[in-house]
Amino acid sequence: MPLHRLEDFDSEYNSIFDGDDIKGKNVYTEASDEKIGTVSDVLVDEDGHFRYFIVDLGFWIFGKKVLLPVGRTRVDHDADRVYALGMTRQQAEDLPEFSDRLAVDYDYEEKVRGVYRPSTGVTPERSLDASAPSYDRDTYDYKQDSPLYDMNEQNHQTLRLYEERLIANKQRRKTGEVAIGKRIETDIARVSVPVDKERVIVERVTPADAGKTVAPNATAFREGEVARMEIYEETANINKEAFVREEVRVKKVVDHETVEAKETIRREELDVNAPNLPIEEH
User: Fold this and answer.
1) How far apart are CA 234 and CA 194, in angstroms?
2) How far apart (Å, rounded) are the C-alpha atoms in residues 246 and 229?
3) What CATH number does residue 110 fall under?
4) 99: which residues sit within 8 A by CB, 6+ positions away?
């Protein structure tokens, strides 16, 4: 089964570990708590199952990288460590060296597994026994070496299953503005005002007592002003006054609407591979 580097298989693999990158973690032996190297990468199969940690053994063997089956490890995220279970320096020396130019095929993996199998109770010699597991390149399955590839309960592995959900937020942004102002328009207004003008009419009439003799000392034969009458006329007095014609009130109202969006979300489901073993889920 072809193997892939973790980042090539899933560029967002870091989300599996809550942003805590598995690459770069220090590797220690579990028994002696001795640092032996660092995890430089991870190899996964086509289904995304972890199969090997690529370990740089710079603290034991300078410049050598080897494959460490995930079933022989315990990841301690709190301590930021990966523990190699039962790993010995002799095993490290016996393991075939890994390089980027190397093709990880069945033959290479068999060399790796051959180093670890004795410590799991399965040796190449046991394949001669009819009851012992046999290995064939055409039918081989990682389940045949479950101690090497299963992250079992005794190592206290906690796998987190994630799912995505849509989070809807709102943000307020300015879409424009309304400016309210006033302008002056002119018009010709006409108004009619009735005015009165006085004038004097002088009428000459013959009095009823015309021809009668008047008494002495009467008004006859007096010179100068004998009567005065004031004459008036009205003129139009036009003024302009400002008054309130109407009020304009400016206010904002909020229109409510619902915006729908859809996205593809992902969810992780648990795959348990434990053939012929009782499994109880809680």
Assistant:
1) 9
2) 51
3) 3.90.50.10
4) 65
Query: Does an H or E element contain 106, and which?
Result: helix 106-120
Asked if 251 contacts 152 with a C-beta cutoff of 8 angstroms, the reply is no
d(CA 25, CA 159): 17
The candidate with the shortest Cα–Cα distance to 70, out of 152, 7, 133, 162, is 152
DSSP 19: T
Burial level of 155, CB count in 10 A (0-12/13-18/19+)?
Answer: middle
Residue 144 lies in a domain: yes
191 located within any domain: no
CB 36 within 8 A of CB 60: yes
Looking only at the bridges linking them, the beta strands covering 26-29 and 81-84 are parallel
Is 65 a member of any domain? yes
Q: Domain range holding 128? A: 4-155
Look at the chain and report how many structural domains it folds into. Answer: 1
CA nearest to 27, candidates 37, 13, 15, 12: 37
Beta bridge partners of 65: 56
Q: What is the pTM of this model?
A: 0.51
Could you please report the per-residue DSSP string of 183-250?
--------------B----------TTTTPPPPTTSSTT--S--------B-----------------
Task: Flag residues of the chain having pLDDT under 70.
Answer: 1, 15-19, 118-134, 151-162, 216-222, 224-226, 274, 276-282
